[in-house]
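User: For a benchmark we're assembling, each entry needs the component sequences followed by a predicted structure for the full assembly. Here are entry 17's components. Please fill in the structure.
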Amino acid sequence: MLSCRELVEFLMEYCDGELPPEQREYFEKHLACCPPCVAYMKTYQQAICLGKSACQEEEQKPPKMPEELVRAIMAARQAK
Amino acid sequence: MSQVPPEADLATQDLPSDERAILERLRAGDAAAFEQLVRDHGGRMLSVTRRFLGSEEDAQDAVQEAFLSAFKALDRFEGQSRLGTWLHRIAVNAALMKLRTRKSRPAEHSGDELLPKFLEDGHHATPASEWRDGGLAALEKAETKDLVRRSIDALPESYRIVLLLRDIEERDTDETAKLLGMTSNAVKTRLHRARQALRALLDPHLRGGL
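Assistant: Structure for entry 17:
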């Protein structure tokens, strides 16, 4: 039987579908009887989704370009 | 007899007309077009370089370097992507270059303390529990978005950069490895640790919801 430590160690490969079928079966047997590992896997995947969503939204509402930076870039272009 | 247009011009025919127009003005050396490009895309590029570099001064330097590189490369822009996408990639490269060249920063924590702990028998030392509403509903709240961004910023640099390239920029493992001068296996190991560390930083806040 796979331990929680081993499950967490190979979690990324499992989530990415990179585990061979036999190991995948061990994983799923463990998950079927271990609520903490199910919770760990779900929150691991949710952390990735939250990171993506928060950063994508930030890019949709970008900060204002500082005026002095615009000036610096235009001056550097002239100088080249 | 009409001349065959250069290859780059053929490719840029796929761009929206407003981008094609500004590209023509840029290639003609129109100063106002350069300023418009900086104003239209600079904010987005700054948000990218801030994420990678943390320091505002370094982030602004990287944006400046990115624009200067882009200006030089305008003739090679083939229109296979939108101008914004092209500039975004240049900004990421400028941020990575800045990371390589900037003076070493004070030693930071390794991140090991953010990895899960296990008992000798292999069970979780602190069993995980699910997040209320899957955490995603909480993302509707501005404070959660800030928390997530602050948590990414708080990751050790070696974790943060791999996480940004793989999960946020969606570069594949091999490209990330090449950009960082690492092996693909090292990228995979570090990405898994980075994701676990981000999960650990969010967990105390999202267990009970915000």
